């Protein structure tokens, strides 16, 4: 059974897509909280009355940031191929918002006339920084920068303002807590993502196994049926070979089951060399029975290709252990013409294989 290839590029793309989806889901509402925070802070500081233009200008700025988030969320939903640029745009918006809010708190703390609104501003700052630590740990360095932009002005200035001494201590302790919470969230995010990737790999592996023949690695009968039905629906030129090893029971009886298996594996390898996947779909559809679906131009050459294969198998031993005895195959082959269903087509080609067996084996029979 072939192993499922683990493609690091596919994993990286999955991580990026997942990160963008989570950033968009968590980020889209955040802008509204800055608008609300600013409304409260401006109201408590009597800014609409004392400095209406500034109050309105900052309100419009936060509304603009929120609109930017909504636009980015829309684009993120159809991001195929532009995930990295969109993530950078999200973070630019987050960090600019944090910078503006940090600047506002700096101003509020420095201006004694705005003392009544300081606590509201600090509480909003704590809330915004907490959101960074718990919901944006996917990029911990950027989140730490966001926390610093929001929080440092409050921490630094509260240490310098005599009336905020107690708050300064609490803010400093909280900042340390936030940074450790950010680290913990980051580890949890990574663990969850790794688990999800492992589950995806497991799902892909089971999915591949359900389509593949365990011994030869070719498609199994179920996959063959799916491909035959699909090719039928697409209505492109289509040919089918059904190949059966002659007297396979004798090979098992004479040389043992393990050698029989080796012959099956060797024939599968011969088929891979003889045909040209993916133009041909190769399957093991029964014990010692194989099928080849040829789509497109290859279908026109089916009879000649089948005869060549038949000759080549008879000419050289399929596996070292049966070198003394000749292994041959019988092949039924046909192009899709009047058959109305995949079952009808398969039955017709299988009938051709039956005739090849009846006529003495080691030969190719086409449709009547
Ligand atoms: N080694 C091995 N043998 C298998 C496997 N699957 C089926 N067989 C054997 O394949 C043999 C098929 O025998 P038959 O159906 O009588 O066909 P045959 O001997 O090839 O005779 P003709 O098809 O008439 O030429 C049986 O002995 C099965 O046990 C397998 O996976 N490995």
TrEMBL record:
<dbReference type="GO" id="GO:0043709">
    <property type="term" value="P:cell adhesion involved in single-species biofilm formation"/>
</dbReference>
<dbReference type="InterPro" id="IPR043128">
    <property type="entry name" value="Rev_trsase/Diguanyl_cyclase"/>
</dbReference>
<feature type="transmembrane region" description="Helical">
    <location>
        <begin position="86"/>
        <end position="110"/>
    </location>
</feature>
<dbReference type="GO" id="GO:1902201">
    <property type="term" value="P:negative regulation of bacterial-type flagellum-dependent cell motility"/>
</dbReference>
<feature type="transmembrane region" description="Helical">
    <location>
        <begin position="24"/>
        <end position="47"/>
    </location>
</feature>
<protein>
    <recommendedName>
        <fullName>diguanylate cyclase</fullName>
        <ecNumber>2.7.7.65</ecNumber>
    </recommendedName>
</protein>
<feature type="transmembrane region" description="Helical">
    <location>
        <begin position="143"/>
        <end position="161"/>
    </location>
</feature>
<feature type="transmembrane region" description="Helical">
    <location>
        <begin position="53"/>
        <end position="74"/>
    </location>
</feature>
<feature type="transmembrane region" description="Helical">
    <location>
        <begin position="167"/>
        <end position="184"/>
    </location>
</feature>
<feature type="transmembrane region" description="Helical">
    <location>
        <begin position="116"/>
        <end position="136"/>
    </location>
</feature>
<dbReference type="GO" id="GO:0052621">
    <property type="term" value="F:diguanylate cyclase activity"/>
</dbReference>
<dbReference type="InterPro" id="IPR029787">
    <property type="entry name" value="Nucleotide_cyclase"/>
</dbReference>
<feature type="domain" description="GGDEF">
    <location>
        <begin position="236"/>
        <end position="368"/>
    </location>
</feature>
<dbReference type="InterPro" id="IPR000160">
    <property type="entry name" value="GGDEF_dom"/>
</dbReference>
<keyword id="KW-0472">Membrane</keyword>
<dbReference type="InterPro" id="IPR050469">
    <property type="entry name" value="Diguanylate_Cyclase"/>
</dbReference>
<keyword id="KW-0812">Transmembrane</keyword>
<dbReference type="Pfam" id="PF00990">
    <property type="entry name" value="GGDEF"/>
</dbReference>
<keyword id="KW-1133">Transmembrane helix</keyword>
<dbReference type="GO" id="GO:0005886">
    <property type="term" value="C:plasma membrane"/>
</dbReference>
